[in-house]
Amino acid sequence: MDKILEVTDLITRFHTFDGVVHALSGVSFHLYRGETLGVVGESGSGKSVTMMSLLHLLAAPPARIEGGRALYFGDNGPLDLLGLDTAGISRIRGGRMGFIFQDALSALNPVMTVGRQISETLVEHLGMTTARAWNRSVQLLDYVGIPEPGKRAAAYPHQFSGGMRQRAMIALAIACQPRVIIADEPTTALDVTVQAQIIDLVLRLKSEMNMSVIWITHDLGVVAGIADRVMVMYAGTVVETAPVDDLFYRPAHPYTIKLLGALPKIGQAGNYRLESIDGTPPDLLEKPSHCQFVWRCDHAGDRCWQDIPQNREISPGHQAACFFPFTDKGVR
Amino acid sequence: MQRYILSRLIQSVFILFGVLLIVFFMLQLTGDPVSLMISRHATPEDVEALREELGFNRPVAVQFGSFIAGAVTGDFGKSLRHKQPAMDLILSRLPATIELAATALLLSLVLGIPLGLVAGSNPGSFWDLLSRGTGLLGQTIPNFWLALILVLVFSVHLGWFPTFGRDTWTVLGLTLPTRSVLLPAFSLSLFTMGQLVRFTRSAVMEIRSEDYVRTAYSKGIAHRKVYIRHILRNAAIPLISIVGVQFGYLLSGSIYIETIFSWPGLGNLLAESIGNRDFALVQAIAFFSSFVVVFLNLLTDIAYALADPRIRY
Ligand SMILES: Nc1ncnc2c1ncn2[C@@H]1O[C@H](COP(=O)(O)OP(=O)(O)O)[C@@H](O)[C@H]1O
Ligand SMILES: [Mg+2]
Fold first, then answer.
1. pLDDT in tens, A15-47
2. Which residue of B has its CA nearest to A160?
3. What is the ipTM of this complex?
4. For the domain bounded by B2-30+74-312, which CATH number is listed?
5. Which residues contact A139 (CB under 8 A, 6 or more apart)?
6. How big is the CA angle at A272 (ends A270 and A275), to the nearest 5 degrees?
7. Which residue minimizes the CA distance to atom 18 of ligand 1?
8. What's the CA-to-centroid distance between A59 and ligand 1, angstroms?
9. Which residues, 6+ apart, have CB-to-CB distance to A26 below 8 Å?
10. What is the DSSP letter of B85?
């Protein structure tokens, strides 16, 4: 399969008054054309910072991207996103890669009509006239399932319901037919029924428009339902990457296993949140010098306190960053 | 929206009535107004005659009634000194004050908002330092002191501006300002400018990190457009109320600045009428200034509601 995106050893740090926050300590992953990559991990593990680093969306200062490469394989050959200038990255943003943010209420400009916010992108990337862009925005709102799109285009974000607002946000992200959609916890703020509708919508758009999707979520249940592959993040690193079935049936990293253990058993009511793992993540103000999961791990050995484990292949397409991964052949 | 405007209008009428009440009883509280107005050598007959003429011998309630009745039609009686209706005097001084206030407001907008914008987007930079300096000085330097220094430097030494007075220029029947307005307007604008700089700066700093600004960038919108359409547009909403309040303050005329520059405006008239114990005129100016402030507040609130679609009444 062809890759559309390949990120290698991405290092992002925040230089704050309290010290240096090691938000990303060498993140590597790739995205195939047409696939859905699920990204899971506790809050603060670096999921958002990873994606925002790619598009230069972090405020600098305090953020600084201090290493790595992020190749985007466009029609004109590979492009290192991290090395692009403002004009270059502006063409990618919205044009090649669309971002869907979590809270559409705060992510949309409160004093600009929704139609205008969509048109703005179209004018910027496709050079449409304002009038054409407006008509196209109305079509897009219709396309994402908003009733009376002509009327709604002239409304402001606060006049939409939560679900409709997230649909509008999606219309905005797909307006210029990007190749990649990054959805950063797009359903976290919504109730379950609406959440399911939004997931269906994104999957439909993905197949109709032939896009690749990166879906960040807390929710392993969602990942199981929609992802082709899953990447698990922990304390600014990728600790495991696997096809979705491998991850659920043959998890290799102790952290992943704990995450899955925190899932309710079949038939048991409850939601799939990841809050119930013992211990707390490490303080990112300290530069990592050993496995960051070690003090929460039930199987740690001496080596885990001395070295940082790198990602290693467990089976084809399945990697884990652990010195003692669980494998088919039994434990270690 | 119409209901909102209507309710604010009614509210404004009540406020103005309150102002009239205060303005009226302010005079009563001085004791016997006539004894303040008349020469110390006047005979009791003279005093009685004046009292009769001005209607002070009537019961207070009747006086108040006729005061209100007059005020509603803009009639505050005649100025003792000028022997002219007080309102006519105010209206004759109004163009000069409007010229001064509008120029001062314009200066503070044109200098204050861009400075605050640049400062807010580059915290810690030279411009930020300059803006914080301006904000601080604008609110702490007494404007009459600044006015004197400006006159000394730019009028006396350099001769670029007249030292005092208002010169106008008439084209096609229109009376236009000349450079004589610049020094008084600049001195007057400093306080407002300081407020605008500070407010714009902090609004921009806050809005810059809003989620919707990040969204705008994530759509690939160019930097400059993000600033104008998203950041400035949102920052403008809180600025509306500052501009409204400050314009009210500028329009009610500055006693210090108009006196220093012998500017023939309302502030000057007020200073003069207080000196002359010209009560009808003082009352009229006090009410007129309140009226301007109340009216501008009303406009501000309406503009606010129009500018922010989240506000619907
Ligand atoms: N502006 C910032 N200043 C300092 N630290 C930050 C900033 N933004 C994010 N971080 C840190 O980066 C880490 C990763 O954050 P994030 O990517 O938002 O986590 P999540 O996986 O929940 O999306 C967090 O520990 C957070 O504290
Ligand atoms: Mg996040």
1. 999 889 999 999 999 999 999 999 999 888 999
2. B310
3. 0.89
4. 1.10.3720.10
5. A149
6. 105
7. A48
8. 12
9. A9, A10, A11, A67, A68, A237
10. B
